[in-house]
Amino acid sequence: MIPISILDLAPIVSGSHAGQALRNTLDLAQHAEKQGYHRYWLAEHHNMIGIASAATAVAIGYIASGTNTIRVGAGGIMLPNHAPLIIAEQFGTLEALYPGRIDLGLGRAPGTDPLTTRALRRAPESAEQFPRDVMELQMYFEEAEEKQSIRAVPGMGLHVPIWLLGSSLFSAQLAAALGRPFAFASHFAPEHLLDAIALYRRQFQPSATLQEPYVMAGLNVFAANSDEEAQHLFTSLQQQFLNLRRGTPGQLPQPIASLDTVASDAEQILVARSLRYSVVGSRETIGRGLNRFIEQVKPDEIMATAMIYDHKARLRSFEILAEVMR
Q: Each residue of 244-274: b (16+ CB within 10 Å) or e?
């Protein structure tokens, strides 16, 4: 069985608030730990009224403090928004408090809009410095040299595992060159998945931290007691994705009977194409879908995500997935 992990955006559902979203996230993480999930990652997004994980390092600390064994990390930190030293100190602190349990996934997109990028006091061209910033961040986690003038405290010598995240060939190539594990955001950006993985594996250069290429692939998983119930739950994500594409992002909406009532045929085609790496259905349907995904992509690990409106239904979905994987 390949490892399976969870990516959570701490969704703020319609009519609720960030505090409840974060408490639900901790509850899901605790359930995931009991069910044998390998990692639990949170993602950085800003100015998104439906996502509560903007202060990602703080949220990771909250989850790590309420769990015992599951790895907790960022999937990811959008490095252009931050000085590498700050991230080294934040994740060095987390590693010092929860040794051997912290992961740091890095992305080069800002994770927000241009106005918010300016509000973060970062220049739009910061993404162009991403490879250099990654290497600087790596240096802060290594043993400090005798005359090193800038050190991350905590951070130096802690060797926090760094992942490269992406949805294009760029991050795949960089991860290969640096000898880092690579995670692809196929759950919402599927176009270059197979090409990026092939490129990463072909060009991988062994490093002190990783001798063989290691690929994690994102997958939307909506599991329920029946195919019909799962498809109903899936409409929340479909609506949220559609609203984002329309430029009207909001809280995670309640599921609806059919997407036909809110989306044109062209919009439904767009949603289906963008979310095509999704398995939705009963236990049997999920099992078949997982097998197809594993056969096609051949990931070393799956990062499952599920933007489900009802918290109990979300817990049940991940419970079914764990049962299928076992």
A: eeeeebebbbebeeebeeebeeebeeebeeb
